[in-house]
Queue: 2 jobs
Job 1
Amino acid sequence: MNMEMLALEILDNTVLKKTVLVFFCGFLFWKIVRYMCGLLKVDKEPVTILVTGAAGQIGYALVPMIARGMVLGPNQPVILHMLETEAGFEALKGVKMELIDAAFPLLKGVVITTDVVEACKDVNIAVMVAGIPRKEGMERKDVMSRNVSIYKAQASALEEHAAADCKVLVVANPANTNALILKEFAPSIPEKNITCLTRLDHNRALGQISEKLNVHVSDVKNVIIWGNHSSTQYPDVNHATVATSNGQKNVRELVSDDYWLNNEFITTVQQRGGAIIKARKLSSALSAASAACDHIHDWVVGTPKGTWVSMGVYSDGSYGIQPGLIYSFPVTCDKGEWSIVQGLKIDELSREKLDKTAQELIEEKALAYSCL
Ligand SMILES: NC(=O)c1ccc[n+]([C@@H]2O[C@H](COP(=O)([O-])OP(=O)(O)OC[C@H]3O[C@@H](n4cnc5c(N)ncnc54)[C@H](O)[C@@H]3O)[C@@H](O)[C@H]2O)c1
């Protein structure tokens, strides 16, 4: 080895050592800063979350999940605003007592009220659970009319008093159309910030596939709920996969029973709500609350790479769905924004089902507007 090569090798080693040292020092510095922040308790600003209808079944299951950090993570403090009717207010006082008794470290404040303006003040995230369910003997138009008036009033309060970048999730039925009314009466809230819950149906579809294949539910991904949160929704597995020891495998291939997938699977997911009412004599609340947490969590924190979820969002015409409807699409989320997954192949059977549920939403929209 001549002198020149030896010099180069020494230089190379020195540069390498220096680089490693710089990275190590940087890492150490970052660790120290984080540790010091912990010691000084440099807390994040709390996020204010509104839950309407908070003394109801879903509200009661949802608020402890939020207070425990299931929505925004274990390091994010929250303030809860909870809205109820006069009739529900006594029960809401009880919910507040229980929240205090649970001593949630992340819960920095609880406001209970029957005043929609106070409820909406400075909220960053609004979960709209309040609604009038259809009871025996009630006309469809009657139910729609009562929900339209709730969503009109609450939209105006959010418009005027919520934080400018407030994200809204509508849970109460008819969820898609309630969200649409809210959008109409809160025009300054960007349409990208108004969504409705179809994640429960999405999770139900994951659950059914996991049961059928006897695989863990976390290994199943990319099912889709298209359309309305109603019995016309279309649970679609054509792009869904399961993680196996041999990589991702298509759900259709693994199930290898198209008849089951095109019939029983779809109706089971569509009618799961009814099956739960029959068994529990009450509608699904635990799974609805959990799905609401999943929806907001993924929207704010982001979806894992290669994974999508279903969200009811304002249609931009993707997949031939009429713009101006709140329709459930497959979406990915990044930096607090959702985007509709583009370019998925839609076969003939799916096309029919996508259009059928869109048609129902068009009719619901017309009915809602006739109630304004
Ligand atoms: N999108 C979904 O996946 C999904 C799933 C399950 C249930 N839901 C719907 O969620 C809604 C709530 O379900 P639940 O089981 O909790 O019902 P619930 O009747 O137990 O609770 C609703 C609560 O809303 C309150 N409320 C009614 N009008 C109000 C108003 N104007 N302001 C404030 N509060 C008001 C009621 O007092 C009640 O406590 C229903 O519409 C239900 O159909 C949607």
Note: The chain has 13 helices and 14 strands.
Job 2
Amino acid sequence: MPPDVYSPQWSVFWYTCHMKKIFLVVLIVMIAYVIFVLINNDSGTIESQLVVTADQQPKNEPIDIKNNHILKPPLDRASERVTNKEFGVFITPSTSPIQPERFQGYHTGTDFEIFPEEFNQDVSIIAICTGGLISKRTVSGYGGVAVQACKLNNEPIIVIYGHLKLSSIANINDELETGQVVGVLGADKSIETDGERKHLHLGMHKGSTINLLGYVGSEPELTSWIDPCLYVCYDS
Ligand SMILES: [Zn+2]
């Protein structure tokens, strides 16, 4: 039975009854809040899992350009052929792996050697990218050279195929598809290679203005050149 409303016990009674209700309301609000947070966390986790599945790889992982194969090797067994002059190596007549040597500087391209059985065979060089053949001529230090204009990651690049037999090179302004024959290697130590051994010098540089330099005098000058082995030194 409730106490008389004017008695001192009334306020204690009132307080006890209402505090129970307030406590219940606060408890319900807290439980509702916890459920709300849990539901939101779950959907967030599912969403991020879906994003990872769709992208196939986390966003910050570096792109493996060697395995993307966006360009094609100019010859078969390309990686086995890079044994003498890699991109960027500093060459002098006294330290060069090729003797005798007449060049000096930082190598702007990659040299691909022939196998012994290819010495007397026609060795076809194929286009590493799709683009027009914009120049073919005899150049000192190269013999026959073919120059192709391509795009790499939507940026223009120039590709130089050095030491080719001039008469074998495709026609100027031909649109060469990746994998089409550019020409064949010039004969060993002949006018076709300007006296060099039978091999391919592959150069790649940024932009659309032809630069045929096979060597540059300083390392900073290499920045406008691209290391071909980042793209084409795999076995096709
Ligand atoms: Zn070279």
Note: The chain has three helices and twelve strands.
